[in-house]
User: Which sequence fits this backbone?
C-alpha cells in the first residue's frame, strides 16, 4: 500500500481535500460544520492513486550544515 496523505483544505462553506500523492481532489457536498471531513476522508480512502502522477523528490536535499564561526 502506497504511503499517501490527505490534505484537507477548508474552504468555507465547502471543504476540499487533496491527496498529496496524486493530487486528486475530493469535494464535500456538506458544509464544513457537518460531516464534511468524514465525507472527504471516506472519498480519499476509497480512491486509488494514479501511479504515473506520483511525485518524487527531483533532487536530494543536502542536510549537512557548515556553520562558520
Ligand atoms: Zn491519491
Assistant:
Amino acid at each position: 500500500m502506497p504511503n499517501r496523505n490527505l490534505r484537507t483544505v477548508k474552504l468555507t462553506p465547502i471543504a476540499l481535500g487533496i491527496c498529496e500523492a496524486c493530487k486528486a481532489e475530493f469535494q464535500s457536498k456538506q458544509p464544513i460544520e457537518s460531516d464534511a471531513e468524514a465525507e472527504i476522508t471516506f472519498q480519499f480512502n476509497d480512491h486509488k492513486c494514479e501511479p504515473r502522477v506520483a511525485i518524487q523528490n527531483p533532487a536530494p536535499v543536502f542536510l549537512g550544515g557548515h556553520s562558520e564561526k
The first strand starts at residue 6 and ends at 11. Residues 6-50 form one domain. Residues 4, 19, 21-22, 24, 47, 49 surround zinc ion (CB under 6 Å).
